Fold this protein.
Amino acid sequence: MGGFYFCRDDEGADARLAKARAQFVRHGFGAPVEIATPNYRGFHVPYIHGGPATFHRDGDDFVAVAGTLTYRDRTGTEALAALLADFTVPFTDWDRIGGQFALVVRKGGRTLALTDFFGAFQLFRTADFDIVSTSLLATVAGLDRVSLDAQGVYEFAFNVFPTGDDTVLQEVRRLGPHEQVELGPEPRYHRVPKPLPETLSDAPLDALVADGAARLRAVVAPFARGWGDAMQCPLSGGLDSRLALALLRDAGVRPHVYVYGPPGDEDVEIARAIASAEGFPLEHFDKSRFRSVSPDDYPAIVERNFHETDALVTDGGMFDNGGNAAARHARHAGGALAVSGGCGEVFRNFFYLPDRPLRARDIVAAFYARYTRLDLTDAFDEERFLRRLEAKALEALDMSPDERGPLPRPLIEQLYPRMRCRAFFGREISLVGRHGGYLMPFLATSSVALGLRLPMAVKDAGRFEARLLAAIDPSLARHASAYGHSFDRPPSLGHRFGEWTTRIRPVPLRRRSYDVQRRLGLAGEKPGGLMGPDYLRRVLDIDFPFMRRFFRVDAIADTGLYRRVATLEYLAQHIGTKIIA
């Protein structure tokens, strides 16, 4: 991604900058480019493993990028120079810019901070904008005191990362997708509307498929020109990664293809069968067997993971054998572009909701209520938790918190890219993209706009996306999948039935499903191995002094949840005496 850090140029700036530079070294970045404006000082760092330019200066003007950006179908210096030449405050030219990124641009004596269309790339800030940075830990290092945010803590634990602009700390927020902020003597806000389609298309399916293929080809084209074959693409038994690979092949790219998982895993075996039939090499990497770890080795691995992932990794990979870090570095070796099928569910019924209007409260209750009171202390206020999620859902749609009536189905679909993808994939983008370029074609604005216009009937069971794959790369579509059918055939009865049984479940039942499964012993298992006490006590106080305020830690019998709670505890113990109640 590259990265950057800016702080207000006051008497504390030197100390804050020294701490931030030290933190960026621990992240793994190289030498910074120092930057100064009349009101702020800071620095920018390039990709860890190299790639196109992410900083461009023209006299007193500059553009500093974290993430991956295309502009006018260009990458690197050409894109940055063109962007700087065209740039106006506020920025509204979303049709010509692509990728996921954070920007600080100075032009004509004005300095503006902004993010990509969906605000997916995470840009952290203090309440008064004294600090603006792509690093959570560097932002925290510049603060004297911080406090844990209960909503953020619970959202991270239950759903992998906080939604909206929240973090797990009250004093650190993220810049929202509609916010652009001038970094002057006082912060000046520019609110920029970002509308998306709210009506469904009545075009025939073949026309929608042709439109989708054209849009996706246009998204991929500048990356294919910029990186060529220097791309790394995953392959599994699912649909999204196969469609991403199809787009690269269609663009004339021969990427390095890989699959994660243990031998015999369904994803691994399907990927192997496809690679063998299609005649391309496949890297199989089993992270779990990367290396054996002794308790004495463990602290150094966890500490490295903590700093490389800026404290909050989404996959629980902080407490591992180093395999996740090795995989992240391998995907960008030699300046390669990493490709992801993430957000492909914009073409499907991600929430598995019925095709009718629903309230925002119903949606968050059905999807985000992944908790049981068995694990929680009295600090958890269920009504407050769900009410805050409801408000953030409405805010993501640029609606008032008072608009609590039923939402039209096309508007509900916007919550997937605007709320879910921003939180979950945004964290992934912000971490993986530190190392080099990152392409997530299905989160492109034009891809999302098409997905939002699709009738629900063609989204269910992946009908549209499978047709799209077959139109772009029929050879890839003909192979078997983890759904029990190939993608050049209609979805199987089992696939359709499985989705239908979820869609028909009433919201109150969906809301309680995780709780019921946990009480019946059907969800999760007691943590062990590298998460067991023999290992974990080497890296943190296993009495969980900070998280015991929020969780009954000893009751947690879900390894994923336990990993995330341990991640939060590690962060809190790292911050230590700065934390106030």
